[in-house]
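so my prof wants the structure for this chain in the tokens format not the other one, which i didnt know existed until like an hour ago. anyway here's the sequence
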Amino acid sequence: MFFRLSGLSVVVWLLSFNLSHAQTADVIHYDSGYSWRGYNGCPSRLCHEYPMPMIDWDSKYAEATLWKSPNGDPYYASSFLNFRMILPTGYNIKDNTKKYPVIIMLHGAGESGRVWTDNFNYQPTDPEYDNNSGQLLNGGNEHMLAVKKAPNAVNAFPGIVVFPQVSYSASWTDASSAQLTQNEDYIVHLIEDYLVPRYHADINRITMHGLSGGAKGTWGFAQKRPDLFAAILLMSGVPYDLAGAEKALLTTPIRIFQGGLDDNPTPGSSQNVVAAFKADGGNPELFLYEDLAHNTWERAYSEPDFFTWIMAHDKRNVYVFDNKTVVCPGIDSVKLGFSANMSSYQWTQDGFELTGAHNRYYYVTEPGSYVVNFKRPNDQQDQSFKIDIGLKAGCARIVGLGDDVIDPGQYKIYPNPAKDKVYISNIQQEEIQDVHLVSSSGQTINVSIQPGSESSAELNTSSLVPGIYLIRINSRSFRFLKE
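here's what i got, hopefully its the right format
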């Protein structure tokens, strides 16, 4: 079967295979031009190319359906998900040498298929039943323009955009369950079993965004499957479960669009989300449009880097907390993070595996090049991009001193880092003559060492250049940083 997309004939396969995401005998099918009607006026109850009210869009936004048949029966659908799709200019389905970024857009309640509670309830014979093109109403044209731009044009998106449509009031997610809803499970199939293997989608560059009910759906879906999405964007919607979302999506790039006049969600709700993430080291961006109520999406799409920002993100990026990319050995550390929900992690430094580094977070204490090898939930192996951690300015390695730092026992030094003075506490006065200052090259440095009050000593370090130094007392050593 064929559909025509902007003058390009594209083959769409009818695929059938055992459902791997659930323990059933059901079979998932994909095809174009179907709408599940459930009455005898449609062949096999699946109407093909049913007339649509927005017929002028059909040649631009390819229509397709994902449907499930119990026990593989091709003449009956127990459930389904209609979706529209845009392919980039010059797309060739036979060319498997190029991979494409993907946007999954989740619409709001008003753009649902069969029913929007208290607003419409289409009958099976109505052309708009489960096929009303509503999911294209807010964002369809903006995405089309971005996809059809020259790839190097400002704010272009030379990739694939998918617009799924739910049947009932945009019920994308279930906040009460950690399990995927039927719609969420279908989208997982759509990504893993259709877009990636058949349409050459790049599994590392899949972004999801949603508006209103679709924003809540994006929060919920991404929280359950954070491994799938390189970034998410939320328009007028906050998570059902803030603590769970923050834990799962802390390292995920996030943009939140909020109306200053909106009462669901309120500006304070979105600000609380941002504050919760930032308290743990996350860095979501908040766009607060003071003059808007709920309809933030029109302004969001007009942001000059809306699609550029999406294009910049890749699942293989390592998250660097506080954007800190330098470290001073023995003084501080750099925290690195990666996506949640991978089945395994192995951090490496300069190509060597780090013992015990099997979590999504790793604390770097030495300069070097760091990579995390990871395995996806489907057991596919992959590797992050390299992140280089340099040596902090004014900080030098300790070399040639053997075991340069010994358990200080009863001694303590402060402040650290130091500027003009360093104090040693819990030191006996007769020990002061045994205090020596040693540079990173192992040279003893003469500094003024004076007794302090109540078992303490004071070192004048104002003449020292920035770097790492040792204070030695007999056989004990203390490392400190001079800023």
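also thought this was worth mentioning. The chain is about 15% helix and 30% strand.
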